[in-house]
């Protein structure tokens, strides 16, 4: 009888544990991208999540021993998410035989340091090249053909027009996603997946292999033409221009519909890359449906034609084609190293694309870009490249300070993104001196801190502004001064009712100094200011500033 009772207890305990895990799994769903108010946000464990990330160097994640010394530094940097590569050749060294030891080690070490992971699938392509495919694929170039350039020579790039390559990649990616579901669905350490990396042909505008040449001479796929026709009134101007060269023909060969030349070649490659990657992503999502994105090696100033940059990749001017060919991809993301950061962010937020920046600069430049993307474009996150070796002094690094500050107010940022009560300013070579933004009833005039000079050669500055409630704002800045004026009907003069500097600790505002007098006076020519309906007062933010300022404004006449 005792044995029966003990067995029954064991069964009941097992059932209870199983039911508890099911309840936990149901209450904490897998990460997802979700529209909330004014913003599309990444939802992790049922709550909006702000990615304060850093991407590792390409080969770092292949060695647990190599990474051992970096995990504590990453944790101490204020970041919450590591972007790390998964190399196809390491998980399928023998065709059809998978080994995920390197993935499991990475997940274990990220968890130990309370960090999330975004995994980058280096499958068929990385930076346009096919260097990360398994050795058994590299050697079998008949079965897995390469791109042929316009000079007739083969490039070390798998053609996206190969069914064999597609099948192999989709099978491997599905196996990875199936494994992630098995080992991580409950803990949700992995929160997003990048499918391939900076795809496109380097060295030729399009593939001139037999399969590609045959497809190029054939009719444009009906799926693409139907998509363009359905969305004709909402297409990007670049798409309208190239399609318009044929008078918007509804059918025909690629050159008949889009005109002969480099632009048509790039569009042709874009469709085939998008179609290939979408089928890989779909196979993965069938196993474990995490949010998935692609990233772009963007056009550089010196590039003259497609092929100088990866032709066919998810460039800003190609997003209509990618939306048609890759509907299962959730985000189209720019890797931004060019100084035209503001311009590129604007290009990648057209037609409802949600911004995420998986590769960019660190340092003081990166700190400003991070706050700008989050505040002006509701970016779900920012991630400098080579994060583990970016500095020898992570404690005092500008990105560490920026991430700690952003982390301390992440709930405020995410709520403000939803409400549309957040904005930001980035003063750089594109906008060198000052910019005005409106939030609530007030205009905020953000300029470089007086004394640092002006013009493109001056040190840059940035500012984040959150509307907390009626007439009260939380502001953070570096190397800027902020003055105020009214933006809506009513009493015409805006003044500072009170201003405090302080910080957020565990979500609670901790004021330090009450600012007044010389600390808020910016222009002492009060008569001149009065003629402009201004008070001459404002807020000042030096460089290396680690405190917010919380200001309440009032109006008078």
């Amino acid at each position: 009888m005792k044995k029966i009772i003990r067995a029954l207890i064991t069964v009941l305990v097992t059932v209870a544990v199983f039911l508890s895990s099911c309840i936990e799994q149901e209450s904490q769903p897998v990460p997802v991208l979700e529209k909330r108010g004014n913003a599309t946000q990444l939802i992790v464990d049922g709550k909006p999540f702000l990615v304060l990330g850093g991407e590792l160097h390409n080969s770092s994640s292949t060695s647990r021993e190599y990474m051992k010394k970096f995990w504590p530094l990453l944790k101490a940097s204020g970041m919450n998410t590591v972007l790390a590569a998964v190399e196809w050749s390491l998980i399928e060294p023998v065709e059809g035989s998978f080994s995920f030891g390197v993935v499991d080690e990475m997940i274990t070490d990220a968890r130990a340091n309370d960090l999330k992971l975004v995994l980058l699938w280096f499958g068929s392509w990385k930076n346009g090249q096919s260097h990360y495919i398994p050795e058994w694929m590299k050697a079998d170039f008949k079965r897995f053909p390469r791109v042929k350039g316009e000079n007739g020579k083969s490039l070390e790039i798998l053609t996206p027009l190969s069914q064999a390559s597609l099948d192999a990649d989709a099978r491997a990616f599905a196996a990875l996603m199936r494994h992630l579901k098995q080992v991580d669905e409950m803990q949700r350490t992995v929160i997003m997946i990048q499918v391939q990396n900076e795809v496109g042909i380097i060295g030729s505008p399009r593939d001139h292999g037999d399969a590609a040449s045959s497809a190029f001479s054939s009719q444009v796929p009906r799926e693409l033409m139907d998509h363009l026709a359905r969305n004709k009134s909402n297409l990007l101007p670049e798409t309208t221009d190239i399609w318009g060269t044929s008078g918007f023909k509804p059918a025909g060969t690629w050159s008949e519909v889009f005109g002969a030349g480099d632009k048509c070649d790039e569009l042709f490659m874009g469709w085939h890359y998008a179609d290939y990657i979408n089928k890989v992503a779909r196979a993965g999502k069938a196993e474990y449906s995490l949010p998935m994105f692609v990233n772009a090696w963007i056009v550089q100033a010196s590039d003259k034609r497609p092929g100088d940059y990866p032709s066919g990749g998810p460039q800003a001017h190609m997003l209509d084609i990618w939306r048609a060919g890759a509907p299962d991809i959730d985000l189209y993301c720019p890797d931004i190293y060019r100084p035209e950061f503001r311009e590129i962010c604007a290009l990648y937020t057209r037609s409802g694309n949600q911004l995420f920046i998986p590769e960019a600069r660190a340092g003081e430049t990166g700190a400003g870009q991070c706050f700008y993307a989050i505040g002006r474009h509701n970016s779900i996150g920012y991630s400098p490249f080579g994060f583990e070796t970016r500095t020898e002094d992570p404690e005092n690094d500008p990105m560490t300070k920026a991430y700690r500050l952003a982390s301390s107010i992440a709930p405020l940022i995410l709520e403000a993104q939803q409400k549309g009560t957040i904005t930001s300013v980035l003063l750089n070579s594109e906008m060198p001196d000052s910019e005005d933004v409106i939030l609530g009833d007030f205009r905020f005039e953000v300029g470089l801190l007086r004394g640092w000079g002006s013009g493109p050669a001056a040190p840059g500055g940035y500012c984040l502004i959150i509307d907390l409630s009626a007439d009260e704002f939380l502001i953070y800045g570096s190397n800027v001064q902020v003055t105020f004026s009214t933006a809506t009907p009513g009493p015409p003069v805006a003044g500072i009712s009170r201003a405090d500097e302080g910080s957020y600790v565990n979500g609670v505002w901790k004021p330090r100094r009450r600012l007044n007098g010389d600390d808020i006076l910016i222009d002492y020519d009060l008569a001149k200011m009065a003629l402009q309906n201004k008070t001459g007062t404002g807020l000042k933010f030096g460089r290396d500033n680690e405190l917010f300022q919380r200001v309440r404004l009032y109006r008078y006449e």
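Residues 9-25 have pLDDT under 50 and may be disordered. The radius of gyration is 26 Å.
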